[in-house]
């Protein structure tokens, strides 16, 4: 099983973004979680293609693009052209989720689907064969620095059981409110990709990453 810490640059200092990404890379972090928000699917607006294009020039990390965007199928090719290595779309944001999955697959990058805390696993379980990763949101999407919603742990467990029972090759990512204690809870439930924003970027980046990576190995 592959385990990855996926720092979310939503909590980065954008004045020093390149430098902070280099620090992550030097610490051996392989994944970079990139939160795109459109002010429609979620209340806030973050950043988009020009930022991704710029950091792509300097970084070899795996760019894990989380689209919190209505009708994301409109932008798949754009984000691939900017340098995305995987694209995660929200089940709630697509009229035709199967078609959107196909578009990402055809564009040649990894496919992720995400569900908000209130969306049941049942809504996406029929699509597990077609995706590489499921992102179980553990806060309401839209903002960093929120508290982990404990009820979401059961969803991770339920998803993990289906994946194991059906012998599928699907990774489980959690996103929102991940810290020392919630990362343990989520991993025990079956998550293997951990997104963390404020927990990684608040305070000393280098020592935070070292501590989290050490904890992930325990
Ligand atoms: C929230 C984003 C998250 C966010 C997590 O909508 O999808 O990736 O950056 O931030 P923390 O780790 O601070 O909860
Ligand atoms: Zn995210």
Secondary-structure arrangement, i.e. CATH architecture = Alpha-Beta Barrel
Gross morphology: globular
Overall pLDDT score: 98
The Cα radius of gyration reads: 16 Å
Terminal-residue CA separation: 14 Å
Classification by helices and strands: alpha/beta
Number of helices: 8
Number of strands: 8
The hetero compounds bound to this protein are: D-xylitol-5-phosphate, zinc ion
Strand/helix succession: EHEHEHEHEEHEHEHH
| CATH topology group | TIM Barrel
Within CATH, the superfamily carries the name Aldolase class I
Read across the widest sheet, the strand sequence of neighbours is: 1-8-7-6-5-4-3-2
Family: Belongs to the ribulose-phosphate 3-epimerase family.
Active site: 35, 175
Catalytic activity: D-ribulose 5-phosphate = D-xylulose 5-phosphate
Protein name: Ribulose-phosphate 3-epimerase
Commentary on this structure:
This protein is of the alpha/beta class and 218 residues long. The chain has a single domain, classed as TIM Barrel. Helices cover 36% and strands 20% of the residues. It contains eight helices and eight strands. Strands 1-8-7-6-5-4-3-2 form an eight-stranded parallel beta sheet. Strand 4 (86-90), helix 4 (97-106) and strand 5 form a beta-alpha-beta unit. Helix 2 runs parallel beside helix 3 (76-82). The radius of gyration is 16 Å and the shape is globular. The model has no long low-confidence stretch (mean pLDDT 98). Residues 8, 10-11, 33, 35, 66, 139, 141-146, 175-178, 195-199 line the site of D-xylitol-5-phosphate. A divalent metal cation binds at residues 33, 35, 66, 175.
């Amino acid at each position: 099983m592959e385990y990855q810490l996926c720092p979310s640059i939503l909590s980065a200092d954008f004045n020093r973004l390149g430098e902070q990404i280099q620090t992550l890379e030097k610490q051996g972090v392989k994944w970079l979680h990139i939160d795109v928000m459109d002010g429609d699917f979620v209340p806030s607006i973050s950043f988009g293609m020009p930022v991704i294009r710029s950091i792509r020039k300097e970084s070899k990390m795996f760019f894990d693009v989380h689209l919190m965007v209505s009708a994301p199928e409109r932008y798949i090719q754009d984000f691939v052209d900017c340098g995305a290595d995987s694209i995660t779309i929200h089940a709630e944001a697509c009229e035709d989720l199967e078609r959107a999955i196909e578009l990402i697959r055809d564009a040649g990058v990894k496919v992720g689907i995400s569900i908000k805390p209130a969306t049941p696993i049942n809504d996406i379980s029929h699509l597990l064969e077609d995706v590489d990763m499921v992102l179980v949101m553990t806060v309401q999407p839209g903002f960093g620095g929120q508290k982990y919603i404990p009820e979401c742990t059961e969803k991770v467990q339920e998803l993990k059981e289906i994946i194991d029972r059906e012998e599928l090759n699907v990774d489980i990512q959690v996103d929102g409110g991940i810290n020392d204690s919630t990362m343990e809870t989520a991993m025990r439930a079956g998550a293997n990709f951990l997104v963390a924003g404020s927990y990684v970027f608040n305070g000393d980046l280098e020592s935070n990453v070292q501590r989290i990576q050490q904890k992930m190995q325990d």
